[in-house]
Amino acid sequence: MQIINIKPVEIIGGCRAGITPNDEFRINGMRIENPRQSNICLLALSLFPPNVTQLQRENRFLAHICCPDCVSSLEQEHRVTFLLGHADKWELCQRTSEYHRLCDESNGEPELAQRLRQEAIQHQQLGEYSLATEKMQEALETLQRYTYL
Questions:
Q1: pTM for the whole structure
Q2: Radius of gyration over alpha carbons of the chain, in Å?
Q3: Cβ burial, residue 98 (10 Å; 0-12/13-18/19+)
Q4: Would you list the domain boundaries of the chain?
Q5: Which residue from 35, 112, 143, 148 has the highest number of Cβ atoms inside 10 Å of its Cβ?
Q6: 4-55, pLDDT tens digit by residue?
Q7: Per-residue pLDDT reduced to its tens digit, 79-103
Q8: How far apart are CA 57 and CA 12, in angstroms?
Q9: Are 138 and 118 in contact (CB under 8 A)?
Q10: What is the 3-state secondary structure (H, E, C) of 108-121?
Q11: Contacts (Cβ under 8 Å, ≥6 apart) of 126
Q12: Which strand (E) or helix (H) includes residue 79?
């Protein structure tokens, strides 16, 4: 069964459980492992099971889960987005997540970055995860140059 890494990739406002970008834990089978003694939120944990099941069955290798605003009485939005991904493909998961976040923030996806992302997907589909990671890194760097011009 796949070990699933979990890490917050975006925090808007704050988190009542004290989740920070440095928190990270994993699910091994049906057990939550917390080697860094990171903060874990009960509300967030309640959202993970369907996605963890899909990841463990290898229907996909990464997922994003957005914890809803658990402080709805405040005027400011509070939300945490978590990245869940196969531990053995964690670098690819993180680069893919960052790429999609940056695409959302930028004014489009340049053709070169798009082509590199497609190459990464092709390598991933062939099970060539280290090559997919390299291509995704190239795509991310291209998108970063384009975004921050």
A1: 0.86
A2: 16
A3: middle
A4: 3-88, 106-147
A5: 143
A6: 999 999 988 888 888 999 999 999 998 999 988 988 888 888 889 999 999 9
A7: 889 999 999 999 999 999 999 999 9
A8: 31
A9: no
A10: CCCHHHHHHHHHHH
A11: none
A12: strand 79-86
